[in-house]
Structure formats: structure tokens, C-alpha cells
Amino acid sequence: MTNKIFTVVFLFVVTTAGLHSQNLEEWQVYPSFSTVNSISVSDNILYSATLGGIFIVENEEIQSRITTMDGLYRANPTAVIFDSTNNRLLAGYVDGTLDVINVETKEIERIEDIKRVTRFNSKSVNALDIYEGKAYISTSFGIVVYDLETLLVENSYLKLGNFNIGTQVNAIDIADSTIYAATIQGVAVGDIRTNLVESTNWQTFNDFNGLTSLMISEIAYFDSKIFVLASDSIYEYQNESWIESPTFTSSNYTALGLADNRENLAVANNASIIILNMEGNTTSLAPAFNSRISALKLKDQQVFAGTSNEGLLVINPSNSTQEQYLPSGPYLNFFSKLLVTQNRVAATSTAAFPQTDPFNPIRGYYINNGDRWENFNQNTSSALSEHRVGSVYSIGQNDFSYFFGSWGRGVVRHNKEDDEITVYNHSNSSLAGTRSSDQEFVVISDLDSDSQNNMWAISYYSEYPLNLQLANSDEWIPFRGQSGSDIYFNLFIDSFDQKWISLITNTNSGRGLFVLDTGNPEDSGDNTGIKLTSSVNNGNLPDEKINAITEDRNGEIWIGTARGIARFIFPEFMIDGGPDERRAQWLINEDTTAASRYLLRDVNVSAIAVNDANQKWVGSENQGIWLLNAEGSRIEKRFTTQNSNLISNNIESIAIDNATGEVYVATELGLISFMDIPQAPVTEMNKLKVFPNPFEYSRHNQIVIEGLSDETRLKILGSDGIVINELTARGGRISWDGFDYNGNQLGSGVYFVVAYEEDGKEKGVGKVVIIR
Questions:
Q1: How far apart are CA 584 and CA 605, in angstroms?
Q2: Over the stretch 525-572, which tens digit does the pLDDT of each residue have?
Q3: How does DSSP assign 398-464, residue by residue?
Q4: How far apart are CA 220 and CA 180, in angstroms?
Q5: Nearest 5°: phi and psi at 291?
Q6: Cys-Cys link to 599, which of 54, 283, 589, 611 (CB 3.0-4.6 A)?
């Protein structure tokens, strides 16, 4: 078979898969389209609903993609179907919301009838079907029927025969006016010409009828028989009884699909796709793929297969050719920890304490170099496959390499220049696993480098929790824990090379902070440290569960806890100082009318990042993002899914590319970025970039001045040389509202911007035309 990977060439909103493409104060999403939830085929157009949105294939090319930036309700549509009569696409979501997408105008109409249902807790749209002008929605509580002309609910079938009211329906098939429903209690069959609101008009099948597995995920009526996918086996109903299919006799089946003309039925397992025709003959295909087939359709002698992590496959059974359609992007839509350096973004894909998940073996890491995504996991890297590195959680870097910590498989060192990968685990290094229980299971919960490019790693729940790899060395030096029964978890190394280590219990409860000065890195005998807690005289932490640690541009250490933020103003005195130097300062709210004296006091902080204006980006668990001023006394901006294009309020990590000002945010639903105004300063000021130019009050709300030194003062002068406003800037870029000292609009004309450092060494000049 031949493989062909196509990339996006046109988007609903013009973007690229690379980085740094959005305008100031705009959002951009970086979705993965590899995991296909649902596919719909209409004429020669293919629609794939994925974890990252929808992509459309026409004339054997990916023509467009639809994401949250284009107006999708959320990043992960669970089902999609094309309504050919009205030339529109229907997409369903996990909370019952429906998007109706006009494929010509790209307008999206949102329908929330199912979402508003209060009788049932779960309202997920599991599948979509169209029959005789009506849309049949398989939901977590039954079947909802819409009139496609009015988009109004016509009926709801909540009690299917003797099944429980509100039984989850995973899929349906409609043939000859009969609905065949796959549910979690078995199969239900009803004639739509009867009143199916009445439960007695449904016939049901369960274990009493020979269905030994009741978790029915897919269903199809073919050749006068009912076929179902139950767990991982195929059953069929014939001669008034259910039997395990004599045609599809193997196991591990993952999908079932029916041809639009009902002349062929296909099933897929981990190795092949088997097609059954009306004469009872089968054809077996062995497509080249490394993942699970999650959706299956047949049309015009072609097989369309959605996969769990390789996009959409189109297979021609007559000559066994295969085409793969996958827009450029990260391998999966899962993100955890982020790093940004040298215009590259590196990210991990596993959350802390991962649960059992079929994606775990391929939850590797991603690197974006600005033009394309490079994905590293067991499917794409022989080194990671050899050492069974799957769930990659933590990340660190020095000048030469990225370091990735896995959940159970040690450390991956990834050379930045040549992408050489080296894996360190218990079998080939001194890295030790989870104490006596499993020395082979090495969990690296965090990594960071010191000023000498030495890499430090936390081995979670280990007798030797702190480990050191000297620059240009392959050896790891282990150090015993120095905080009693407390477990090391997060690690941050400050500008004094002190190690700030969050402490937890074996149930993940917070135990405070441990600040360690290792002195000579190779000599554990000169280590000194201090444990900080919530005690006023020994740390004054807002909460002992520490989730984020960073250093700002003034050298202060900021910590995010399960209940608010605090900062240490003099970190150099943490170990040798007294209670006053060790006392964390909580953020005082400058708004004296606020309900709390302390800013963000009750926020469960998950991430903190510092931009070049020394402002703090603060991520939270399920409450979105705040941008604070440099002192942490005022909220400058607030972002949630309700007031912005943020795709999730649950924030995993934040990292800032200071060269461009782009703020990258890892969420539970994927990666997104915001182009912030502050950016890295220039080394020499000269001609300033001022835009938009001309500036019109009727069209614009801010003037951006770029090309500034680290700390500058700016004077705005009229053509007569009179100063009409003054600004103070930190970082290389600042915005101005175009008003004078008194908050008044300026008259039309040319205005000059003069920037200078306090010592007078650097000076920059620019000009802007203002139109009133």
C-alpha cells in the first residue's frame, strides 16, 4: 500500500500550523487532528470530527479545517454528519450542544436543547443519523429527533422497551422505517411509523436473548440481519436468536461500518478490515497503520477509516492502495508541561498521576520549530519504542538538550541540534524507582538545569529523589532525600542555584517547600536546606500544596498554591536568614473595596509565567487565566472560555516566548496561545516601530511602540515640540491609547515618539500619524 500525508492549504480563518502567526492580543489554537471520533461521507467530500476540531477532504486534498478559532463550540466534537439536503454540517459534543455549520458561508448556528436538559446528568451526543428529513441524535439518555427544516425538537425517546428510562444510546441505524439502537443495556428495535415515545412499541434484546455482552457500541442492519459490536466481538441476529458472528470470528474488533447502499458491511480490528458482501463473501484488507480504527464508512467501492492517532485513511479494496489525510499538528491533543526557547516550543502530553488510558504508550512529546511539528513517541521513535517510553510528563532543558521525564520509564535526553535521543532508566543508570516497591518504575516528576548547564531530576517516591547529570556527562549522581517522609515532586532552580522542591505525601497532599543549597554539586556533604510550611514564622505559605514555582525579573520567587499566590522577596536569604526573610508575602489587592484583602486568595493556581514587563500570567484549575501587574496587586486581564477564545478553563502549564511576546497555554483540551504586547527588549534602540500608522480613533484602540530597550521612558511630542504625554516601559514593546495627559483625544497630525534610557545611553525615535 502507498501512504500519502496531506497538509492544510486553506483554512476557514487564514492561519498556519506554525507559530507566531496571529496579531497582537489575538488567540491561536494548535490542534491535533490525528484522533478521529466520527466521519461523514457526502459525494466526494469527507468530514472528520477529531479531538482538535473538524477537517474536510475534497478532491483528494485537505481543503479546510474548522477549529474553535472559527467558531466551533469546543475542540472535541464527538459526532459529525453532513445534511446534504440543506448543505450543512452537524456536529455534536459531550455536553449535548449541537453546531450547525453552513459549508458555504462558514456560519455556525448553535443548538442547546439537549444541553439544557436537567433530568439527566450526562447529555453527550454519541452519534448522528439523518433519515427522511429528520436528524436522530443518539445521546446519553436516549434518542432525540430534530426536524431538519426547522431545527426544532420533534420527539424524544427516553424509555426503550423494558430498558431503564434514560438508557445511554451509543449509535443507531435506520432501515425501512425501523430504528436499530445500540445501548449500554442491549439492543432496542422500533418502527418509526408507530409512536416510539411509548416504550411498549420497542422490542429489546439483552442477555436473556443470547447477547452475552450488553455494552453495544455500534449497530448495522445488513442482509436482513442485525449486526452489533459488543465489547470487542461481533454478534448477529438471525432466525430470531443472537449468536457470535460466524463470519467475523476473531476478537479485538474496534469499529463497524456499513456502505451507504447497504450492499457491504465492514468490521475492523487491530490488524485488518474485513468486508462482507450480500453473497456472503469476504475481503480482508491489511492497511498500514499503527493505531486503532475508531470509525468506519464505505462508499463508492472505497473504505474510509478514522484512526485513534493517524487521521483518516482512504482505502481502495480493488488495488489495496491507501491514502492518509492528516493536517499538520501535534500527534495528540493532550498537553501538560511546556518550554519555549529559541523560537521552539517543546511540550509533554501526560498529566500527573496518569490513569489507565489506551493513549498512554503514545503519549510522548512534541517539538515545534516554528514551521512544523515533530512528534516523538513509541510509534515514531525507535529509541522510545525500545525502552517503552510512553507517558511523558515533565520537561527541562539546558543549552544543549531537552530532557523529558516519563511516568515510569526514566529520563529522555533529546539533543537540540541533531535530535539524537538517549534514554536513561534503572537498567542503564543509577536512577532509582519508587523505593522498594519497584526500582524499575522510575517516575521523573520534574527537571531543571542550573547555571552550569547541569541537569537535576526528581525521581518521585524514591529513596534517591534528587539526581544530577553534569553537563556533557552520561552519568546520573543520586542524592538521598533530606526531608524525612516527605516526597519530592516539583523542582525549580533559581538564579542562585538554590533548588526549590515542592513536598507531598503519598496521597498527593501538600507538605510545603524544601529549599536546598547543594554547594558543590557533586558533594552531598555540603548540602544545606530549610523546609517551609504554612506556619507564619516558617514560610507563611498560603497553602502547603505547591503547584507552581518561578522567578520574576526582579529576582523574587513566586509560588502558586492550592489556595492563592505568594512571593519571596529575598530568596538569597532563605536558608541563612531568619523568620522574616523566610516569610512569604501574600498578594495585597490594591482594590480596597474587594471582598478579600488578598488577590486571588482562594484560587487553585496551576501555573505561573512572567513576561518581559514582569507581569505574571496565572493559570488555575478550572477557573481560567489572570494577568497580574508586576507587583501582583492588580488584575490587568482575565481570560475564561466565557469571555475569550480560551478553549478550556483548566490550565496545565504556561510558557512565554519573550522574543515575540507569544504566551502559550496548555489546557486539558489542547494547546492555545495569546500574542501579548510585552516582548524582549532590543540591545540598541534606534528607529522605533509604531503601528497602526496612521492611527484612527474610529478604527483603532491602541498604538503599539516596538523596539524599546529594557527600561525606558517615552515622550510623545507634537510637531511643535510640546510634550503631550509621557510613558514608562519595561520590555521591548508597549501600547499607548493615543490620548494626552488629561485623557483627551489628540488632533489630527504627525506626532513623534522619543524613547530613552534613564542613563541616556540609548535613545530611539519614531512617529505616528493620528487621524481624529
A1: 16
A2: 899 999 999 999 999 999 999 999 999 999 999 999 999 999 999 999
A3: -SSEEEEEEEEB-EEEEETTT--EEEE-TTTSS---BTTTBTT-EEEEEEEE-TTS-EEEEETT-SS
A4: 7
A5: -125, -175
A6: 589
